[in-house]
Structure formats: structure tokens, C-alpha cells
Specification:
The structure is a single chain. By secondary structure, the protein is mainly α. The protein is globular and about 60 Å long. The protein starts with a helix and ends in an 8-residue tail after the last helix. The mean pLDDT is 89.
């Protein structure tokens, strides 16, 4: 969803080609480098850097772990909000005042409970290990997430402002295309969405078989990441224009 926000903040489709180019030229090569380090050492981020470069590189491994911890700190809060939204959506329609409702979801005492519920679920899955925990959960949840986003994208085509939303999303602005701010935002999004520089890809690669193709794995991950992000934009922009919120992104 951050992809849609970054696209809206940077002139719509002007953001897309820059993001794709940076993913191909910078993101995938960096990911392959992390893959190579992880698979060759079969270690955690701290151990991998220590084995490959000596004890002097250990602090970088600690920075990787710290980055993951900091990201978890706000992702888990947002996930708690999403859990509340999902439960309320099943029980009843959302209130008309979306702003006031978000304030209740994010600022009430109940938000702490939903956050703790989500963290307990994460701790349970992780405690079961990679194959029985993370892999099994991902095999179920990732396809479900993809189907939900595709379903929402199909539904978004029926909205009154869908055409205007698609035009804003897919028609690039040459002025924004040459903007350094847009370039910086695209680079930031590429690193963020591909989980580079935080040890996640390195750790993933430590479990890869020796005969797996690292460029192939990186290509699949980058393509899947962009595909889901792009489809999410096909949901967000029709809704923005259908609700008359385009002034906030213009």
C-alpha cells in the first residue's frame, strides 16, 4: 500500500518507470548479493557478515537486526489496526466519518489489545520454525492476500471515478519524471518493498538449496512484489477519485 501512496505523492505514473528501472538496475543486484552471502554462510545476518568479512563486520549485522526490529515496531501496530478493521467490517458497515473512525481505531485503549493479539499470533508462527511455521503460514496467507487484492481491483472498476483514477495512475508527468525527489522516492520504495539492507533476504537465502538460481529467485520476488503493488494501485486510485479525494494527491 505504500507503493500507491508514493505513486500519488510523485505525480502518478511518472513514478512507475523510475521504480521499475531502479528495481532492475539496483534492487535485484543488491538482492542477489545478499542471497549469495546468506547461502554461502548458512548463518544469521550477524554470523554471515562475521564469517564473510571478519569480526569487524559484525556491527553491520547488528544494524540489520536492529532495522528489522524497528520495522516490526510500527508494522505490528498497523497490523493491529488492520485486524480491528477486518473484524469490524465483518460485523457491520463502516461509519460515514472515516477520519473519526480511524481515530477511534488507532487511538483507543482497544488498539493495544489488537496489537498484542497480532504479536501473539506472530510469536506462535515463528516459534514453530521456518518450515512448520513461517512457510506453512505463507503458503496460506500470501495467496489469500493476492486473491483479496485482485478481487478489490475488479470491484474498483465498477466505481464512478475509476476512469479518472486510472488516468492519473497510468499517465506519466514529464515534469515529475525528471524530478530528483521522484527519483529518491522511487529508490526508497524499491529498497523498502524488497526488504533490502535489513538481513531478511540474507536470512531467507541461508535456507536456499545449493542448486537454486539466485538471479531467478530475485527475479520472482521482485516481479511478485511489483505485481501486487501495481494491482493495489488499481484499487486505491479509483476509490480516491470516486470519493472526490483527488485534491489530496494532485
Amino acid at each position: 500500500w505504500r507503493f500507491s501512496y508514493a505513486t500519488a505523492e510523485n505525480g502518478g505514473a511518472a513514478f512507475l518507470p523510475l521504480y521499475i528501472i531502479l528495481t532492475l538496475v539496483v534492487g535485484i543486484p543488491v538482492m542477489i548479493a545478499e542471497f549469495g552471502l546468506g547461502r554461502s554462510t548458512r548463518s544469521s545476518p550477524i554470523g554471515a557478515l562475521r564469517k564473510a568479512g571478519g569480526r569487524g563486520w559484525s556491527p553491520v549485522g547488528y544494524l540489520f537486526v536492529l532495522a528489522g526490529l524497528l520495522i516490526l515496531g510500527y508494522y505490528s501496530v498497523i497490523a493491529g489496526w488492520v485486524t480491528r478493521y477486518a473484524i469490524d467490517a465483518i460485523r457491520s458497515p463502516f461509519p460515514a466519518d472515516a477520519g473519526a473512525y480511524f481515530g477511534e481505531v488507532s487511538g483507543s485503549t482497544a488498539s493495544v489489545g489488537f496489537h498484542l493479539f497480532f504479536m501473539a499470533a506472530v510469536a506462535f508462527i515463528v516459534s514453530r520454525g521456518v518450515s512448520k511455521g513461517i512457510e506453512r503460514a505463507s503458503l496460506l496467507m500470501m495467496p489469500v492476500l493476492f486473491l483479496i487484492i485482485v478481487g478489490l481491483a475488479v470491484w474498483a472498476t465498477t466505481l464512478a471515478g475509476a476512469g479518472e483514477g486510472y488516468r492519473y495512475y497510468l499517465a506519466p508527468s514529464l515534469e515529475e519524471l525528471t524530478s530528483l525527489d521522484t527519483l529518491a522516492s522511487a529508490a526508497s520504495q524499491a529498497f523498502f518493498s524488497l526488504s533490502l539492507g535489513m538481513g531478511a533476504m540474507l536470512t531467507f537465502a541461508s535456507y536456499l538449496p545449493k542448486d537454486s538460481s539466485l538471479p531467478g529467485e530475485a527475479g520472482v520476488i521482485a516481479f511478485a512484489d511489483f505485481g501486487v503493488s501495481f494491482i493495489a494501485g488499481m484499487v486505491v486510485f479509483p476509490i480516491i477519485f470516486a470519493l472526490g479525494l483527488q485534491g489530496a494527491v494532485g
